[in-house]
Amino acid sequence: MLKAHQLSFQFSPGVPLLQAASLTLSAGQWVGISGDSGAGKSTLGKLLAGYLAPQAGSVTLDGAALPKSGVQPVQWLPQSPELAVNPRWRVAKILREAWTPSNAQCQAFGLQEKWLSRLPQSLSGGELQRVCVLRALAPEVRFLVADEISTMLDPITQVELWQALKQEAAQRQLGVLVISHDSALLERLCPQRFHLSGGQLTPW
Ligand SMILES: Nc1ncnc2c1ncn2[C@@H]1O[C@H](COP(=O)(O)OP(=O)(O)OP(=O)(O)O)[C@@H](O)[C@H]1O
């Protein structure tokens, strides 16, 4: 179980972003987070994945702190995949950085063989996003923070990406936190949803 307990965080002194916010994500559970631009959704996601450390409160995985080395069991997937890859690596190397997905998994996420020998900047944002999502699904990974990951995809590719992720998550009992401005998407994907405002999470 991934647990955020009474997290408080601020970038600037006197400007609190999160104020004692708590959230629990169990294996296989899908939870949605909405909130206005600047409310702190990505910051919450980064705290949960260990990219940032809270100033108060804690993030634990099965009662222990997140590991400091090795494949991170909580993966944060950002909206802009081009910022999350080495621009000098070919797509094949990027995809297989932590593990080697099967052909069936590549197919399920709509990856094309011809992309593998190319540099990431020659893929569209949506193509590269699919590579990055699959790259993040190493066997050690147990929770995903999907931060606006389908915003740049066309509607059909969006549906395909979420279907592939749903299937993978169900098979492996991955817990998924979906961050989005799209309330219809959150309603469709996540039985449990929270709105982040004023540093607090409110169920909706
Ligand atoms: N590294 C940083 N240093 C200083 N301020 C930051 C930093 N990162 C984010 N912020 C500020 O913290 C606030 C929350 O940012 P965050 O990205 O978490 O919001 P968000 O809810 O995800 O917004 P959006 O929906 O627009 O992506 C914003 O006002 C942002 O400018």
Model description:
The chain is an alpha/beta fold and 204 residues long. The protein has one domain (2-203): 3-Layer(aba) Sandwich (Rossmann fold), CATH 3.40.50.300. The protein has 6 helices and 10 strands, in the order βββαβββαααβαβαββ. The protein has a 6-stranded mixed β-sheet with strand order 6-7-8-3-9-10, with helices on both faces. The longest helix is centred in the last third of the chain and has 18 residues, at 155-172. It is globular and about 50 Å long. Adenosine-5'-triphosphate binds next to helix 1.
Please specify the SSE layout and strand pairing.
Layout: E1 2-12, E2 15-25, E3 30-35, H1 41-48, E4 56-61, E5 64-65, E6 74-77, H2 91-95, H3 103-108, H4 125-135, E7 143-147, H5 155-172, E8 175-179, H6 183-189, E9 192-197, E10 200-203
Parallel strand pairs: 3-8, 3-9, 6-7, 7-8
Antiparallel strand pairs: 1-2, 1-4, 4-5, 9-10
The structure holds adenosine-5'-triphosphate (ATP).
Adenosine-5'-triphosphate is lined by residues 11, 17, 35, 37-43.
